[in-house]
């Protein structure tokens, strides 16, 4: 306003010259109101996106809980068929292929449940099903546990909340491969981890971590070790939380 008032006061030339200025003056409120209108667009759109995203995820949790036991018995077969169909090794297959697999392995899903699962795991919105993410959600526990299930098996929560690294396809593949072995020996393995952890920090040097795995005949390839460390040691501290590692396998 001060700029316009100074402009009009410094140039009192002719009425004809001032008339366009006065008539064009309402353009300032127009542009400001249009900017306000533009800024207000994202505000209502945010709740809509959160509601649309959260609905299928909440529903899928109950569906995944329902089929978890089934999948834990046949996930190797599911993974094998998925990998055969995943020619480009991207960790995803066409949704139609997943429907055939769900029917083949008797996952007992209704049409509505199938729609919700496929919507949730169509991560790139390209009509493809991210089977690694689906399997890790049912087999591995990489998210914070909310129920009291882990209190029963006494795996301590970390002193510092973990800031995990990337969950790559190679990481899932490595974790799924060693899952059956870990399930058979996680209790004595936990005791061995603690015996190496003399300072009781819940953390082990990478060399000690590998040594304990080796004692229980769990040998990782160089690539598998790299992917697991990339997830559990994102900050490159050369230490790994063995409780976080074991927690991923126990549901």
UniProtKB/TrEMBL annotation:
Keyword Ribonucleoprotein appears in the UniProt entry: no
Domain EF-hand: 189-219
Gene Ontology CC terms: nucleoplasm
Annotated Polar residues bias: 21-37
MF GO annotations: calcium ion binding
Entry keyword NAD: no
Keyword annotations from UniProtKB, A to Z: Calcium, Metal-binding
SUPFAM superfamilies: EF-hand
Domain of life of the organism encoding this protein: Eukaryota
Region (Disordered): 1-51
Pfam families: EF-hand_7
Positions with biased composition (Low complexity): 1-16
Entry coiled-coil feature ranges: none
Gene3D superfamilies: EF-hand (1.10.238.10)
Name assigned to this protein: EFCB6 protein
